[in-house]
Amino acid sequence: MKKLLIATHNKHKLQEFRLVLEPLGIQIVGSDEMNIPDCDETGTTFQENSFQKALWGMEHCQLPTIADDSGLCIHALNDEPGLFSARFAKENGGYPNTFKVLFEKLKNQKDWTAHFTCCLCLVIPKKEPQFFVGNVSGHLTTKPDSSLSDFGYDPIFVPDGFDKPFGALPADTKKNLSHRGRALELLIAYLKDNPLE
């Protein structure tokens, strides 16, 4: 079984990759298992950051490596927090306080539309990097459900075609609809045509 590093210390994310990639005959390992430290993210785009993290992981263990970079882009705020979504939340005391900060920024705005973006980068030794991008459009809810303790910005993002935020949708619905889910679909299609050697 071919090994593939997922360059993350996030166990939830690692499990998500395992569920979709191990049926392809790929053994998934994470950064913790390989003792790989975090990579400094200095890129100015999701693509640059995902590539930096994937290359960092591959150079540490010489395994094919996947890394992702994702974020929430709010249109009225010039697509912020975007690339800095995780950092923005940390700087504002985590969730749900981050939501209050965003709502204050948006209080005089009529446009509450937004989108999530996920860019996956696959780096294989001696090969060109491959990128897989997934997006999902929607809007922010003005009344987040405080009972939702789902991941990140999910309690306040309502995808187009739904009347509930990501955090209130069934897991299977969210998995198929999400930005990461869409990027993973593209990755899976690529790996079926280009198996890891």
Question: Can you give a write-up of this model?
Answer:
This protein is α/β, with parallel strands linked by helices and 197 residues long. It has one domain (2-193): Maf protein. Helices cover 34% and strands 24% of the residues. The protein has helices at 11-21, 46-61, 85-91, 97-106, 171-177, 179-193, and strands at 2-6, 26-30, 65-74, 80-81, 113-123, 130-140, 157-159. Strands 1, 2, 3, 4, 5, 6 and 7 form a seven-stranded mixed β-sheet that branches. The longest helix has 16 residues, at 46-61. The protein is globular and about 55 Å long. It starts with a strand and ends with a helix. The model has no long low-confidence stretch (mean pLDDT 92).
Strand content: 15-25%
Largest sheet: number of strands, sense, barrel closure: 7 strands, mixed
Cα shape:
globular
Which secondary-structure class do the elements indicate?
alpha/beta
Rg (C-alpha, Å)? 17 Å
What order do the SSEs take from the amino end to the carboxyl end, as H and E?
Answer: EHEHEEHHEEEHH
- Low-pLDDT runs of 5+ residues are none
Query: What's the architecture in CATH terms?
Result: Alpha-Beta Complex
Let me know the number of strands.
7
- Helix amount: 25-40%
Terminus-to-terminus distance: 10 Å
CATH topology: Maf protein
Our count of helices gives: 6
Count of the separate structural domains: 1
Under CATH at level 1, the class stands as Alpha Beta
On the 0-100 scale, what is the average pLDDT?
A: 92
